[in-house]
Amino acid sequence: MSQQSRRKLEVDPILRMRRVRKSYGDLLVLDDLDLEVAPSERIALIGPSGSGKSTILRILMTLERVDSGEIQIEGESVWTYLHKGAQIPANEQHLRKIRRKVGMIFQQFNLFPHMNVLRNLTEAPVRVLGLSSEEARGRALELLELIGLTDKIDAYPAQLSGGQKQRVAIARALAMRPRIMLFDEVTSALDPELVGEVLNVLRRLARDSNITMLIVTHHMRFAQDIADRVVFLESGRIVEEGLPEVMFSRPSHPRTREFLESVLEQ
Amino acid sequence: MSFDWNLVLEILPALLSAFLVTVQASLLGMAVALLLGLVWALLRRSGNRLVAWSATWTIEFIRSTPLLVQVYFLFYVLPSFGLSWSPLVTGVIALGLHYSAYTAEVYRTGIDNLPKGQWEAAMALNLGRFDTYRSVVLPQAIPPMIPALGNYLVAIFKETPVLAAITVNELLQTAKLIGADSFRYLEPLTVVGILFLIASLVSARLVEKLEARFVPTE
Amino acid sequence: MFTGGLIHFHLLVLGLAPRTGGRSFGLQTEVFFFLRAFGSTHPGLEPAVTATRRVLCTGLKQLFYGVFMPPPFDLLPGLLSGVVVTVQLTLGAAVVAFVAAFIAGLGRFSRSRLQRSLAKIYVDIFRGTSALVQLFWVYFGLPLLGISLDAMAAGILVLGLNVGAYGSEVVRGAIKSVPREQVEAAVALNLSERQTLWYIVLPQAVLFMIPPFGNLLIELLKGTALVSLITLSELTFRGQMLRTAMFRSGEIFGVILLLYFLLSLMITFGMRRLERRLAIGQDYGGVE
Q1: For A5-15, how does the pLDDT look when each residue is reduced to its tens digit (9 = 90+)?
Q2: Are residues A196 and A150 in the same domain?
Q3: What is the CATH number that goes with domain C83-278?
Q4: In terms of CB atoms within 10 Å, which end of chain A has fewer, N or C?
């Protein structure tokens, strides 16, 4: 689980963010952020609300632009690209190329309500990856088995519980075979009794695949179980990061200690 | 054939006085619509189920049938009841009747949107029905309605040409007469079209301003 | 049973009931057979027999109309052709309106400044002027610029473009109502902009569009009456013609109003059914 490939940082990082700044109007959300992630690494992003954790994920998914700074995925710059020897601002074509490597799961599931589960899972593989409908269906069935919802293949999102919806959302993203998966507080909108089924899927994913995972969460025990590295973010800066055992039991920074105390109380 | 600009200058005075008739018909029609709409709205809230139901379906009937046919109906039927009014008056009544169905709807949503607590407070103060409406309900419900009502005034204005069918000398009728007279329809109709367009754009701005003033933004 | 027979009898009179073999020949045929048989065996009475037959025939028809179609409903046959033209006009204009609404509505979201401006200009012009004036302009004014359209074509074009302008606002509003998160999910799955619009946004937006489109369709129906003023023989025009022939204005226009009302009810119900069908599987609270 978490011990896999500690060698990581000797290999080229799959993800590199350098001096990234982002503001929403007057509000500074990311403040000269530096972050490197190794391939297949599992990162837990924790911190108070408004600290910028979701923003990092949204930027990596190209849903938001950065004001300044550099972002590289698998060595390729996201927001600029090389054209006839010069770096020019990325166009839609380039962004789509980058996006192929990344997948995201949202807090509000965002399943397509007008499609049943099968179509939700096969729409993008067919239209973007060019799979035939049989191939896509085959892939969908595999994934449905992985998440344990094979019997719901014809159901519509409206007929599913929150936990089921989120599991389908995970399968939908996995169907695109991304290298990096981003999880944005994926259990926050769920009733407590449904949280476990989703976290279990994440655990399975971490155990059985090589996908790099960035998980924004406030489930600390879960983070301790699954993460290779925990990153604590506050006010747009990384305050502290390190191994889960260290971070949760002997954090160095006082702010980290304060935050963990307030969270673990609940 | 090209556009005869001299003709335009010649006919402009006639068209402008026709414009006044159009404005007059619109304002009067709106007045009728406002009054009648209020009547419908109150009838719909009546305790008597038959009355409320009839009012609802009457409104629906008026709203779903063409203004032109309603105009014809009044124009040809009223005389047989001994009421022979001028085409303008008949037209104004028809406009008012038709659009009262729409204003009734505006009144309804406006009144329904008033928080129930206001009604309860009025009852607690023992205000009678009339006073409740006068002091509590209408003063609060009416301001947000004003932009919507303004839009219907514009709509009435744009439908006044229908009155040409019963020979009211508004803009379209005048343009038709000019056209029949001079054998050139293009110029008068184009000028009329442009006049409507200008009036419409100006009133659209005005309604926007009304909306900014009267509708509280959340 | 009696009423069944009576209805069958009336249908026979109108020539609508099928002539089945055997016993169900109906009263009229039996009477006629009897009369014919009688006439052939009593040759001298032939003229009387024929006369009787004729009186019976028309008399029975009068009876039928009198019982089932009292005034004012006797006007219906005369108005029927008008209803057909009205429906044709409504359908034709609806197609134009639908296409125009989508082109202009989607055009407002275009990347190109030119396309956005063109769409806005179209909407402002057709919403800002009176439909009747537009109708007259196209029918009487355009010929002077070299383009002549017949009344039906002018009606379909003008009404279609007029209602289409209002429709484009509906399309625009509906597209904006689709939650932004749906687009984000599509981006996360790397769907292209075009794919996102066509397969994710529009299918959801269409559901929002149906009630306002229903209202616009009724406005279209009402607008068809205006085309009578440029001499198209639709329902209102036929009403005017009957009026000049019969002077029963109240009844005529009353029946016409009822016919329009019925058509608009059909539109409303049709739209509700459409909404229900398109919303299968979805948790759509707007449908009754």
Answers
A1: 444 456 789 99
A2: no
A3: 1.10.3720.10
A4: C
